[in-house]
């Protein structure tokens, strides 16, 4: 488990009084140098990162941390940039077509899409990092966002099965690979190894 922070309850009146157990506030990267002092590789990697980054956020290591961190980091990068937010909204709207062409039922993806799109509209309205952090620390909202990103990754692979099939072990069909390792919540980012295989064989 990484990054278990708590400063109040979800839905509290004060902006900062909500649970931070999924994604933390920013902290100085030097703070985590004290963690795992016996792990030389961990220490070396952190010191290397500290040359390029001054702060870091922690995420809960629950099997969803990659997608949750990716989603949060990208949306946070859009704050204060209306043009990029608008461009991304259009991209997300088009992404439904990717899912439908991969064979996903619109009724299944609807709730996940709506949750993800609502968070984009949220940052478009007020541009608040606090509101974004609150949304990503709400378990229901956060899990819906993660699930949409998982389904979108699965759709990307399934729609390009002829290409990716050669990188899946044991002759497993891409559709089965996605169903087993990619589409369900609380699974590690198994497809990372597949993308690495593709990169390595270029």
TrEMBL record:
Origin superkingdom: Eukaryota
Enzyme class: hydrolase
Cellular component per GO, a single term: nucleus
One biological process term in Gene Ontology: protein K48-linked deubiquitination
Keywords noted in UniProt: Hydrolase, Protease, Thiol protease, Ubl conjugation pathway
EC number of the protein: 3.4.19.12
Hydrolase is among the record's keywords: yes
UniProt catalytic activity: Thiol-dependent hydrolysis of ester, thioester, amide, peptide and isopeptide bonds formed by the C-terminal Gly of ubiquitin (a 76-residue protein attached to proteins as an intracellular targeting signal)
GO molecular function list: cysteine-type deubiquitinase activity; ubiquitin binding
Stored Pfam families: Peptidase_C65
All residue ranges annotated as the OTU domain in the record: 54-202
PROSITE patterns in UniProt: OTU
SUPFAM superfamilies: Cysteine proteinases
Family classification: Belongs to the peptidase C65 family.
Protein name per its UniProtKB record: ubiquitinyl hydrolase 1
Recorded name of the encoding gene: OTUB2
